[in-house]
Please model this.
Amino acid sequence: MREHVLLIGGGGREHAIARALAESEAEVYACAGNRNPGIAGLASEFETLETTNPDAVVDFAERVEATIAVVGPEAPLAAGVSDALEHAGIYAFGPNQAEARIETDKAFQRRFMRDNHIAGCPDFETFDDPEAACAYIDEYDGDLAIKPAGLTGGKGVKVIGDQVTPEEGKAYIRESDHDRLVLEERLIGEEFTVQAFVANGDVRTAPAIQDHKRAYEGDEGPNTGGMGSYSAASTALPFMTDADYVAAVEIIEATVDALEDYKGILYGQFMLTAEGPKVIEFNARFGDPEAMNTLPVLETPLLDVLTAARNRDPLPDPVFADQATVCKYAVPEGYPTDPVAGARVAVDEESAGDALLYYASVDEREDGIYTTTSRSFAVVGVADTIDDAETIAEDALAVAGDEGLHMRHDIGTATLVQRRIDHMKKLRGDE
Ligand code: AMP
Ligand code: GLY
Model:
């Protein structure tokens, strides 16, 4: 019998997962809160449901006789969807609620690293009293990152000395209703992501990627879910050494060893500092946009990884094409602070040319596809060099036009990549 893979989530990341699964013999059944036209086109059935409602997901999974499930976003993991599926006898590639705390509870995550002596943990303290946190800011010798302990869609962190002054940081703590906070040493360097397939103690890592969190070109403006990302035709990025990549992989392996029986994707977000990689955070799922860099170059069938995980077989050693990728998101104008929905999306899979097109939070209506208040769609160029991949992505954006949309044209450009290289050189005192 063909595998019936249940895919949970309706963003660009899940469109990339759906496409990777559709390339093998799997039958894909998808559910999400929004009807993603890209996923719907690939799935045997698409159900709109509340993905944080474990009963609703299990009902759909049972109806379509799912033999395996992939949980795309973090919110269903936090809601215990993996636990509920397993309880119903359906293998879920995604951690249970308790192990997903590595992402969903930043205070747990930092204590976990400290207690298990995992390398790359910044100096930190956790707080449940806002005034104690403010006093710590006054006392601390240096800049701090202020992090709500719970999920904030990547938008809750404020870094003193970068986005805010100490006074603004304290005002943020007092005004926001986050009841638990982590304050940690501000890390300086270049960010990168390494994602790993994990099951039964096996860890299989993918090439490094650099995401761009800031809304505007030149890394200005508020943090977003991620505006775009690139990877090189090698495991490391141009501003890192192979040893930096290996150090990051070792941190991920040590983390998996310390977790009980983690399964799914473990995503490490690192700051490459002058002293090597430090952990900014872990996520319990593929990154979005990073899944759109990783999956198009994954030559090993994704289905083989999932079935090996379920069958408790060794995970296959994934093969990645030696190609660079550049992913650029188009988001609604005003995103993330004041997004304006309702612009018509004027690009489709054909008109995107050589680029891959992934739909995210769009709304499919009778007369077309429209933007909502979240990220709309992404285009991905795949080529021998970052430069060529960037050109492919830009050509597709030109077709899309920019009416009602905003994008960062600088992601993946030679100028921006060179700036990263120069920044690391300077930090490491190579100049
Ligand atoms: P997070 O939600 O943990 O991914 O954080 C969002 C963004 O805040 C990261 O992508 C970093 O740019 C920044 N950030 C988080 N923690 C730190 C830190 N300790 N030092 C400097 N920047 C940080
Ligand atoms: N790209 C960052 C994230 O998925 O959290």
Summary: Residues 123-185 form a domain with the Dna Ligase; domain 1 fold (CATH 3.30.1490.20). The chain has a mean pLDDT of 96.
